[in-house]
Sequence to fold (286 residues):
Amino acid sequence: MAPSPQPTWNPPPPAPRMGPGRVIALVIGVLLLLPALGLLLGGGVLLWADKVERNDDGFLFTAEDAFSTDGYALASEQVDLSTGADWVPLSAALGTARIEVTAADPDQAIFIGIAPLADGTRYLDGVEHSVVDDLGLDNPAQAVVPGGAPSGPPTDETFWVAESSGTGTQQVSWVPEDGAWMFVVMNDDASSGVAIDARIGATAPALDGLAWGLIAGGAVLLVVGCVLILVAARPRPAASGPYPGAQMPAGKPYWTPPPPVDRTTAADAQPGAQTRTGAPPQAPPG
Fold:
């Protein structure tokens, strides 16, 4: 009887190195790392400013800038104060604001005032002055408004919500309120030619919480991004089979090789065993 043919094993096609799910996980993980690093960096900068840059009074100040005008006043552009959320009080976000001004001429008395926008605009209407844009930022611009002299010295007006005047460094502290405001700096006697060094600051009590919030958000995004990248990059598990990488062909059994035979005990290795198929053993002579 002819021996039955052994089944033929066909290797399966190689599996793709990375499926669509892993590619998506990798892309999302990498994209999450970018905002995570940004939040961590921003939170670290705010935390450093909160712990290091505050002065002994608890204020954070901008760099000191020099301002001058040939007119009678230096005024800020319109300052709109609002948190944009009813549940966040403005005092919690900014705390107490402070303006510090020093006249370039130490003998010149200087005036600082904070006024509602409508009142300050009315007082400076027709007065030659300069408007400072981007107050508190590097290299703020100034726009000259033509006109004449004011109707009287600023100290005679009663609409200022906070004011200070005198020689040397003058400062005004003010708890901001919602609304539109204007900062005005003039010579105390309302003379022309105002030259000062000034800086602004605030206590910003919410800065510490904001910094830690950014750090926490960045840490969460960083962890999620790293987990997705690790899941996408982990090696595929090896398929089970008689040898590494082997897989069962559909509808076909594995072929198992026969066990090895000990030739010293095999039947055809014994003395007198037939050497040809069907030939009887030869009798010894005698």
Summary: The first helix runs from residue 20 to 53.
